[in-house]
TrEMBL record, chains A, B:
Membrane disposition: Multi-pass membrane protein
Highest taxon above the source species: Bacteria
Keywords of this entry: Membrane, Transmembrane, Transmembrane helix
Any GO CC annotation of this UniProt entry: membrane
Protein name as catalogued: Uncharacterized protein
Species annotation: Aneurinibacillus soli
InterPro entries: AA/rel_permease1, APC_K+_Transporter
Cited Gene3D superfamilies: Amino acid/polyamine transporter I
Amino acid sequence: MKIKHFLFGRPLSTEALQEERMPKWMALPILSSDALSSVAYGTESILIALVAYGTAARWFSLPVSLVILILLFTLIISYRQVINGYPKGGGAYAVAKENFNPLMALIACAALLVDYTLTVAVSATAGVAAITSAFPNLIPWNVELSVLGVLIVAFINMRGVREAGTVFAFPTYFFIFNIFALLLAGLYQVVVHGIPSTSIPMPAHIPQGVTLYVLLRAFSSGCSALTGVEAISNATPVFRDPTVKNAKTTLLYLGILLFVMFMGITILANLYGVAPSPTGNPTVLSQIASNLFGYSWMYYSTQISTALVLFLATNTAFAGFPLLAAIVAQDGYMPRQFSTRGDRLSLNVGIMVLSLMSILLIIGFDAVTDSLVPLYAIGVFLSFTIAQLGMVKKWRMEKPSGWKSKVFINGLGAIMSFSVVIISLVEKFSAGAWTIAIIIPILVWMMFSIKRHYVSVANQLKMDIDHPLHLKSTLMIVPVGGINQVVRNSIEYALESSPPEQIIAFHVSIDKDEDEKFRGKWQTWNPGIRLETFYSRYRSIKNPLLRFIDQVQRRVDGKYEITVVLPIFITKKTWHRMLHNQAAYFIERALLNREDIIIVKVPFHLKS
Amino acid sequence: MKIKHFLFGRPLSTEALQEERMPKWMALPILSSDALSSVAYGTESILIALVAYGTAARWFSLPVSLVILILLFTLIISYRQVINGYPKGGGAYAVAKENFNPLMALIACAALLVDYTLTVAVSATAGVAAITSAFPNLIPWNVELSVLGVLIVAFINMRGVREAGTVFAFPTYFFIFNIFALLLAGLYQVVVHGIPSTSIPMPAHIPQGVTLYVLLRAFSSGCSALTGVEAISNATPVFRDPTVKNAKTTLLYLGILLFVMFMGITILANLYGVAPSPTGNPTVLSQIASNLFGYSWMYYSTQISTALVLFLATNTAFAGFPLLAAIVAQDGYMPRQFSTRGDRLSLNVGIMVLSLMSILLIIGFDAVTDSLVPLYAIGVFLSFTIAQLGMVKKWRMEKPSGWKSKVFINGLGAIMSFSVVIISLVEKFSAGAWTIAIIIPILVWMMFSIKRHYVSVANQLKMDIDHPLHLKSTLMIVPVGGINQVVRNSIEYALESSPPEQIIAFHVSIDKDEDEKFRGKWQTWNPGIRLETFYSRYRSIKNPLLRFIDQVQRRVDGKYEITVVLPIFITKKTWHRMLHNQAAYFIERALLNREDIIIVKVPFHLKS
């Protein structure tokens, strides 16, 4: 227990669970690390889809990014309306639950859980890639470093991170600073030295192979950069008053930052003709930074800030997944343990499940960000779609002033989000998206099954208060293995609770001679209780005992409460347990599966 | 249960456990597969020790083998005397137990257990090497095939193999037949075509590097071929009358067979100048066979019979290890479970432990026989030494007619065996023998610890029959999580066993409002029992309950028997269990660690 307290801190009382209100300058970095950090791999994802078709094809990253950024602004406007509609916060699950049947809400929930898991895996591997781009001799430890990163973030979250707010604002600003420095350096180069010779000009005609299909694939890959834009609207209540206004302003700032950073990086990649490395190392961002800064301290600063902000994004998922799981668990669609808060008020089951799943993904995909990206975005945009649809339904029901334009905006958001889902599914089906298409329905089905079970249990446990208590006389069966202190304690307990004529001692011998011998010893001791013995030719103690209990149960036919008193002994040291056959344990397990049998365990504690 | 019976057969009654008496022709192959099969790797082990010093060095395999065979005859004569002394059988453990203190017996036991484990690992890998020498495309599956082989033999032994006696005689005769065919083919070649040009002649002077140290290493490696010669004397009672005479004759036959086969293979290896392959594949025996038979059916027959007899040797260890463990367990020096016979009368714990340990060895040593051999032989010869010393002591105590020559023979056996132990330890210390030098003392220490524990438990459990039963009144504590059917059942049980004023219901709420609410509901129900409630700010249910129990226990100060009645519910499907927090389970575990608390489990079975 001392070790636990040392590692995780002292337990916190429930009263300590209060939301801390934040000013805009602090909420922005904390809530948008996920969205902003995606620019670290967004441009690279687009370039990977184009790289096979020659240098000229890479120019198309510019128009593709532009389309993605148009989509971004549609989403920003839509989500500003979500803030209006749900000032108390509410992700896709809450919106869908209020406006649709549970099916819709659970689809949103499954999509989000999958997405949070992928956020952890993608961000952790991309964060490690930022580090190994700068320090290539760490490349062989990609997987280990990514897993270690996840474990550290999980550990911090299990300790409970509430107090660390200001600390967490720092990496995002550090990252923003570095990216803007990069963009300014690029601007300076162009202004002073002109367009670099490496720059890819707009091709005169579309290069061979660059079909609409290819461009759509590049688009759907790049959409991974938009994940996380919903975070601010989900967390509206953390803003200081005027809450809604502050949240909306912050969301707009996020949109502008994301636009400038993403577009800027794509333009720089084009100016320096950067091609993504087949191994994903060094990253596109690292190549740009080394072109502009050389291997100066500014380069290392860029790489380290990238890694930091990506691990902060991981942390965002570690806040989101357990909280969503807890809410859904309270609604009865996930195992109840997800809603239990640990000593430090953290939702440990959710944290552990998320760590486990994302670590499996990291190991399974060998910590290669680019192979994880095809799975990504589908879940996010599916939840976007459902949230926007929910808003459309809400406006049409409530009909507030100007509801028609509100319906139009959210409807547009829904259509565009759903288009991304469809494009991603089609374009990347064989690259891994099919797994998502299977996992989400399975999760939804599981959640319904869980709910069904909980409802059924509640019905079975329901008790009629007016029904009077029904007391029976107890009949006690005491399996006795020998005549010793443990057995004496058990017999004493039986005699304390029942009259002697309602107690039967039962002995199984696996040796013919022993049977007679035991009867003799019992007679000598004579505790005043009837003894039944059985010679087991098949050497099993459990089976004859169970058969005997069955017989007794049939004979008394519900008129007596049947209780089995198990003498057990508890060893002093754990390894001693291996030295005793666990007969009592197996008997207990078998008895628990039989109806209407009460089990009494009379422990005897060995002193050494 | 049906699957279990299908795989392992129906349970057998204890009466079926009888020794079957065997004629010599059947006992020989069954008891000596271990010894005879060692010729498959014995010569190779010697050659490996010499191969680094040039072709001429390999000639020394001839004198080294001759020395080993002299040792063999000393052992055969010594063990014929063991048969005389222990006509009821008795391995090194039994002999040492009768003639020395337990320490000696336990050293012999530990040595034998280690040796049996190595026999399985060495024989299985050598058996697979015989197969992969003939079918090289199986080489990548060396480890998997060896493990599979061990699992199959383990499975057969768990089914109980008694009835398969005659079947088991076949592979040994098949192997003997093939080796003799090989020797005759070699003889024919020499007689008809003269000494082959590949033959290594006796070198005129000792080649550089071939020191006494090297020759001793070759000798100690070759001694692995002598493992298993003790098997016949251990199993004397299985022979038909006249038991002693038959056993002694069979042992002599074994000695002659082993001599001819081992020496013959070494001579053939020399005639064909065979060098061991660095990877251990193809084996020396396979090289000889392919030289003489070409890749004809006789070659494949030789390889297959070698593999079969080696797996039969594995089977010998699977008979020996569990039986020895069972005997030692009955003496209290090993966990009792080793002496429990399963449904099929097989000693399953021993079989499983042996499989596990040998599989770990196979995996750890990558299924390379030659790297396992340095660990081998030390254990065997240590047990030989102890057995022979025991015989010396026995003759000196009993002084039968001719006891002086008997003492001389067994004394010589002891000295020679002990020399092999020392030579092997010194020569192969760094090659792995050090592990054996560590493991055997650790095993002995563990066995003494186990015995100490059993003696201590027996003393603690001892009961004074004349001491009258001491009955107390029970005080029942019922933790109640809500008002439902499970709780009702528990309260009913409590009321059936104790008067209402001796029952306390205890409720922990993790929510301040809930506390009051629960008290109200309880009042409405009014089961006539006192309710205590507690608001847990740290959300733990277990800790407040345990503290409450401690308080009660302190207050009643041993005047009442304290019983905790745990309402539990049993889910219908196993996966449902994951949907409920296992609070009752953790409470029970904590209670079992507290003294003087009786635990009652009142199960409620969910129907769906």
